[in-house]
Amino acid sequence: MGWHPEDAKDFHEAERIKLLEQLQNPKVVALGEIGLDYHWDTSPQKVQRQVFEEQLQIAIEQNLPISIHNRDATEDTYAILKNAGVDKIKGVMHSFNGDVEWMESSWISGLTFHLVEWQVSKKLK
């Protein structure tokens, strides 16, 4: 349950209200897939950042773990997470296509990283 970055341009107040209502369902256990995708760039980057920040705040307020989509936006993703207060965030860094060195130097203790197989295999060749 969450608003994917590729569709961020369509996230308005009505969608925010609907998301908040859906998060009240006891079957919902996380907020995601949320984050940034600068690879496809189907929504303006500024809008993606705003929607990501807003959903992070919702996750913190509702004490929900998150599933983060991060494609070609590692630095901005990290900056937004730091600004939101990474000590308040738990979840999975899904679709992480940064490198291992960055991951180790910028470790966020509450997150588990999922390395994208096709991206890692290209770097190992």
From TrEMBL:
Keywords: Hydrolase. It comes from the Bacteria. One of its GO terms (molecular function) is hydrolase activity, acting on ester bonds. It holds the Pfam family TatD_DNase. InterPro entries: DNase_TatD-rel_CS, Metal_Hydrolase, TatD-like. Its EC number is 3.1.21.-. One of its GO terms (cellular component) is cytosol. Transmembrane segments: none annotated. This is Putative metal-dependent hydrolase YabD.
